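ESCALATION

Customer reports they have been waiting on this structure for their group meeting. Please prioritize. Original submission:
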Amino acid sequence: MIIDLDAHQGNGHEKDFGSDGRVYTLDMYNSGIYPFDHVAKKYIDQKVELDSGTETEDYLENLVKALKVAESRFQPQLIVYNAGTDILDGDPLGRLKVSPEGVAIRDEKVFRFAKDQNIPLLMLTSGGYMKSSARVIADSIINLSKKNLIDIGTRCIEVE
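Update from on-call: job pushed to the front of the queue and completed.
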């Protein structure tokens, strides 16, 4: 399963896996921005098209509904999660209005979705055209660790 939550409609992976029934694509994106790839769009198994200016609460409500639908339609063995930060309020290209806290909650919901079904998840950070994106990603990772959804652990190396 590909869960694509950056602000742009995916088109590369959708075309690559569009005819492969072993891959299910959930793509939630701003329908008013690039790439407007109508060929790729027909390969999305589950699309959630958002309007420019969608705010945190509406974004998260749409995500919760989408994950419930995905769970009822497909039983993946692996989730590849595109965790873009171009959904942040103020991002010049994404044009959505999700707060930094909303990004952390979004990631938590996706990780909990995977954990509840015992599905391994690969998180790819992407998008995000503001300097604040790095801090938002770091805070989200810390939140995931605090909620026991990931183990970032620590390594000690003894030097003699």
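Sent to customer with the following note: The radius of gyration is 16 Å.
Escalation resolved.
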